[in-house]
Amino acid sequence: MNEHPLQGEFPLLARMAAPDVVPPEILRTARTYRQAVRLCWQLRRAKRLTYRQLAAEVGVPFQHVGDYFNADDKPKRRNLPGDAIQAVEAVLGNTAVSQWHAWRAQLTVLEEMQAQRRAA
Fold it and tell me: What is the CA angle 87-59-99, rounded to 5?
């Protein structure tokens, strides 16, 4: 096989499967929204993916991406916008943030039902 010396490989030139579901025991380690966002990044399929590449794929400012995943949780840090969650999960290859929201919502509904029963 004679390859041209300037021809490069395209390692991601393939159909990507839908984002993976995160196992509940791993998801439960995220207590806050920011922890769920960081978990999504930690579990990404493409380990060599950079913040710059993610920003370009999702359409968010590159300057903000570092804040989304930073571990210090200072009040000045930006949170991942809700309208970017689906795109970020698609690029990173898992649904940690959506699952975290669903998990939190179910707990809230359950707690509300229990409170109503106690009040009745």
Answer: 20
Amino acid at 111: E
Each as own residue / partner, the long-range contacts of residues 78-85 (CB below 8 Å, 24 or more positions apart, any chain) are 79/33, 79/34, 79/37, 80/37, 84/58, 84/59, 84/60
How many other C-beta atoms lie within 10 A of the C-beta of residue 72?
A: 8
The structure's pTM equals 0.77
Q: Which fold has domain 24-119?
A: 434 Repressor (Amino-terminal Domain) (1.10.260)
pLDDT one-digit tens code per residue, 34-74: 999 999 999 999 999 999 999 999 999 999 999 999 999 89
What SS3 state is found at 91? helix
Helices 96-119, 33-42: inter-axial angle, 10-degree rounding: 150
Structure-token pair, residue 68? 């989304």
